[in-house]
Specification:
Length: 269
């Protein structure tokens, strides 16, 4: 298949009504996952949580719920479809500025890979297995700490995660997320803007804390500190007024989840 044929095939798939519908499903199930993570974070803040407040914890909750396996399969299909749509979008992207084109392509590819990874994790639970994001992250960190080069890679990875968190906060504060959705008018517009702002800022703070913990783990050679989102949220409880901060972030993550439902409806696809 030549480049022209490949481009035409990608464009046909990208314009497919079925793929667009499934991509919207991806945004919706991502919202469900964040609602569950927010609820789990509230459990940590109130001392009643016994499940990791991250994607694996959310999938575990679904797996233990009657009929939850059907929702897990919806998560799998939605996440893979959204990941595929983003990868095709990156391939077809044609901004006038070549530097901007490759930066945007890289961002779309990274998001696509992330959704594929989430879909793969959900698939394990849908098939009756289990997985722990916290344990996986700690294991990878421990392997990297085995040599000086690995420690440097871990520090760099942590700084990148902090940068991603900072971008989420920036996107929320400036409401840059409105570029991704056709914002409705009236009262619904205020609701979407409020949910998006609170959600992006809360998620950005959580991601940023996770990145800081990765850097701290590298410098202290303690892989347990690098345990992903759950460790980041749990670590907040050790701060002054940490329970209050965690509750605010948890509510923000729930807001992000509701925003994802709105994005499923109003996303620019």
């Amino acid at each position: 298949m030549n480049d022209a044929s490949a481009s035409q095939a990608a464009r046909t798939a990208h314009n497919s009504t079925a793929l667009r519908v499934l991509a919207r499903l991806g945004f919706a199930v991502n919202g469900l996952v964040h609602l569950l993570i927010g609820a789990l974070a509230i459990g940590i803040a109130t001392g009643g949580g016994d499940t990791d407040a991250d994607q694996s914890g959310a999938f575990k909750q679904l797996a233990s719920t009657p009929g939850g396996v059907f929702l897990l399969w919806a998560v799998v299909i939605g996440m893979f479809a959204l990941g595929l749509w983003l990868l095709i979008s990156a391939f077809l992207m044609q901004p006038e500025d070549s530097k901007r084109k490759w930066a945007k392509r890289g961002a779309e590819v990274a998001k696509g890979i992330t959704y594929f990874a989430l879909g793969s994790t959900a698939l394990k639970f849908a098939l009756g297995g289990s997985s722990s994001s916290s344990d996986s992250t700690s294991s990878v960190s421990a392997d990297l700490m085995a040599n000086p080069v690995g420690v440097g890679v871990l520090v760099l990875a942590g700084l990148v995660v902090v940068g991603v968190g900072g971008y989420f906060v920036f996107k929320g504060v400036t409401q840059k997320f409105t570029e991704d959705v056709s914002v409705p008018g009236g009262t619904l517009r205020k609701a979407v803007l409020g949910l998006g702002t609170a959600g992006y800022v809360a998620k950005g703070v959580a991601i940023g804390v996770a990145g800081i913990l990765v850097v701290a783990a590298a410098f202290t050679h303690d892989p347990e500190k690098s345990s992903g989102l759950d460790a980041a949220l749990t670590s907040l409880t050790a701060l002054p007024y940490g329970m209050v901060v965690l509750l605010v972030i948890a509510v923000g993550l729930i807001a992000y989840g509701v925003y994802c439902f709105a994005r499923a409806r109003f996303a620019r696809l």
